[in-house]
Amino acid sequence: MRTRLISGAELTGLRALAEDAELFEQKAKYHVQVLAREFDGTISIGGLPKFKVTAEANGRVLGRITSQFGQGRFVLNLTTKGENAQGALVVEKETADKSGNATWTPAMRIPLPYPAWEVDGEKIRDPDKAYMLGASILHAVINGPDEA
Q1: Which of 34, 76, 97, 131 lies 20 to 30 Å (CA to CA) from residue 4?
Q2: Cα distances (Å, whole numbers) of residue 100 to 35, 69, 75
Q3: Distance in angstroms (rounded) separating the CA atoms of residues 74 and 110
């Protein structure tokens, strides 16, 4: 629990968040829309299991992931760290609690405004970005978060 007033750096971070929040939201929605166009659940792309991404117009949940292996959703996460604003498109995996009620577990964090476009230290070519992001998201929905 916080027991002190915010620092000057934290105040700067809040101001940066006020400035950058709209950009983060636009980029998050853009990524979900691109994925929704590419992954409509009708065909297997590049050998991946079929899955569907749907964009949602408003609210905290920006989109959903549907596959025979599990369900997921996209949530915009905005925070500050010191003087900096941070945005992320978070992929949450649907799980069930002991009573069988749906719960959501963060499974992947996609930094905004620009994800890290690298695999095994190699830059991803522009035409492959949506495919690799989609494959990474599907992997997170199926397997959950990476173990640390």
Answers
A1: 76
A2: 30, 17, 22
A3: 10
Over residues 122-146, the pLDDT tens digits come to: 999 988 999 999 999 999 999 988 8
CA-CA distance, 137 to 144, in Å (whole number)? 10
Which sequence spans correspond to the domains of the chain? 8-142
pLDDT at 148 over 70: no
In sequence order, what are the residues at sequence separation of 6 or more whose Cβ sits closer than 8 angstroms to the Cβ of residue 43? 50
145's tokens: 């978060």
Question: Which amino acid is it at 143?
Answer: N
Cα end-to-end span (Å), the chain? 25
